[in-house]
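Good morning C.,

I know you're traveling, so I'll keep this short. The sequence:
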Amino acid sequence: MNIGVLTGGGDCPGLNAVIRAIVRKARSVGGHRVLGFYDSWDGVLEKRYEELDISKVRGILPKGGTILGTRRGSPFDYPDGVQRTRQVFNDLALDALVVIGGNGSLTVASMLADDHGLPIVGVPKTIDNDVVGTDATFGFQTAVQIATDAIDRLHTTAESHDRVMVIEVMGRDAGWIALHAGLAGGATAILVPEVPFDIKEVAAIVSRRHDRGRYASIVVVAEGAKPKLGTLEVPEPQLDKYGRELHGSISQVIAPELSRLTGFESRVVQLGHVQRGGTPTAYDRVLSSRFGLAAVDAVYAKAFGDMVVLSCGRIERRSMQVTRGQTRTIDLDLFNDVAATFFG
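The tokens, ready to paste straight into the viewer:
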């Protein structure tokens, strides 16, 4: 068999572990060829690939990023994109393609598999943990640990200067990182896209903390957090070339407003892409490896149109159609009943 593999969307700790597992199982157990396509779908459309053997993936387990490179975009960006993709499958005699990606990549993979009949299997990944159908995605635990480590460090400088630190983490449509890192890091307040906030309520939480003699506060903000209508004026968001809102400025609006309402000095820390980089945690290495092995099993079973998922600790398969246009939002019970107990 000839099995292709690509990584799509944003980079994520654990991608290399998936690639390694796919190659190890396909080559060692099945004796099959694995073709790694460079730069996501661009590599497919431009027929840029490399045959991967065990020597090519040796030592990549702990490395962040992806040895194949990744980009956004898809064959549907071109009028003849699907036809060109099908031709590449034929030219290279591809029996299957494993697409490792988040909501966007898996939606594209589902459309190509279910609507156009291409033999594709999916592997869910994203630091945002927002893919519907799986209990967890690899990369999330690493991002949470990085954010938590940063919060721990910022506690000490906030306490030294009696400051309010507004820490912005990734989370465009779902606040998983903010919720888990904020809870683990002892945040004073956590702001997520799923629950619009009132800046006066946040200021009251901070003020109550200071009234008790705690003169430092940590406010963790997901980049996609939004205020309740009419409570805070925010700039009109710009859109990227895919029509998605560009985030990364909400903390710059929140911090000065908290200073105005409380009288306490506020500073902004935007963690940005540092959350994506570096060595994956042990948990993410193990989950990635399990996903990679299961993806090859799905290819052998011709379970095209499916993705491998984590469900109650077991690796299973589920149709990629459940991801189409969907976002897995946070557990509101965890936010309202657990995290909120510690606010202030």
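Safe travels,
E.
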